[in-house]
Specification:
Layout (H helix, E strand, L loop, with lengths): L1 H16 L2 H8 L3 H15 L4 E3 L4 E3 L1 H28 L4 E7 L1 H18 L3 E7 L6 H4 L3 E6 L6 E8 L2 E5 L1 H7 L12 E5 L7 E6 L2 E6 L1 E6 L2 H9 L5 E4 H10 L3 E3 L9 E7 L6 H16 L4
Parallel strand pairs: 3-4, 3-5, 8-11
Antiparallel strand pairs: 1-2, 5-14, 6-14, 7-12, 7-13, 9-10
């Protein structure tokens, strides 16, 4: 029975991953072993389940029918195992978490390391990088994102409220004037952080309606810290998350502008793949982060 389940699981994993190599990477198994399991399953059933080419993997008609039933069965077994395990054991095992680099290094790190002190049987793989991460393809259990949820294949839970700030140096304001309306930024130098949602189209709100203002300027960069430095040196206006803006506003390096037009409702979200059962270690981390940021608000 155990061997039969291993073959069935291999078949489902390979198709879900889009190929043997991807499945091997995601699940830490050899490509040869996965191929053997799928071939053994096909021999046992007496039918071909997959059409294999060098570029594409697809299911036969029999494979499609078998996949539907097999994936549902495995999901039920996984849910049952996880439910029993979560009721009887503390969080443990490898936890892969993704977060933006600057937020992760400064604001998230104390929260997530405090979680590890509470649950010493959890091993953390924390990936801090300023790019969009495909949770399923890269095997990420949980991502922290500062945005609104756009991908319907994912589930999100709000961790904390956040907001953005538009700022510029006093020198730049002396040269170009202080904008009174977002539309004026069309004709002023701006620093574009390409990690920002919308990139060169900055979003504002006026009378309850969203305004999208196209901006341009001397710098495009994929780092909010570098964008902040460029703005501090008088090269343009910048949009920053509040946790990066507040220190330089307090020091006088940047002056906030257009505050009354900034959108509200942006949040820090814990995002995870759409699964019926959420692993105990992931649920415990989400609960911990909600509690942490209630007691340590993001400014």
């Amino acid at each position: 029975m155990t061997q039969d389940l291993a073959r069935i699981r291999a078949f489902v994993q390979v198709f879900d991953a889009g190929g043997f190599s991807s499945a091997a990477r995601q699940h830490g198994r050899s490509k040869a072993l996965l191929s053997k399991y799928v071939t053994d399953l096909e021999d046992y059933l007496g039918v071909r389940l997959m059409n294999r080419t060098t570029r594409k993997l697809s299911l036969t008609e029999a494979g499609e029918a078998y996949y539907r039933e097999a994936s549902a069965l495995l999901q039920q077994l996984d849910d049952l195992d996880a439910t029993i395990t979560d009721q009887t054991a503390e969080p443990r095992g490898l936890l892969r978490v993704s977060a933006p680099r600057n937020f992760g290094e400064d604001t998230l790190a104390p929260a997530i390391f405090d979680y590890l002190r509470k649950y010493p049987k959890v091993m953390l793989d924390l990936r801090l990088e300023d790019r969009y991460v495909d949770l399923v393809d890269e095997g990420i259990d949980l991502a922290l994102r500062i945005s609104t949820l756009a991908d319907s294949s994912l589930i999100a839970r709000k961790i904390a409220d956040m907001h953005v700030v538009v700022g510029a140096s006093a020198e730049l304001l002396a040269r170009h004037g202080t904008p009174r309306h977002p539309e004026e930024l069309r004709h002023m130098p701006c620093i574009v952080d390409v990690n920002l949602q919308g990139q060169s189209n900055w979003r504002f709100v006026e009378n309850g309606k969203t305004i999208s203002v196209p901006v341009n300027g001397p710098v495009r960069v994929n780092s909010p810290l570098a964008a902040r430095k460029a703005a501090g040196m008088g090269l343009g206006f910048v949009v920053l998350p509040s946790y990066l803006a507040e220190p330089v506003i307090a020091s006088g390096e940047l002056v906030p502008v257009l505050s009354e037009f900034l959108p509200t409702g942006q949040t820090l979200q814990a995002v995870y793949p759409h699964r019926r059962h959420l692993a105990g270690k992931v649920r415990a981390l989400i609960d911990h982060l909600v509690d942490w940021f209630q007691n340590h608000p993001i400014h």
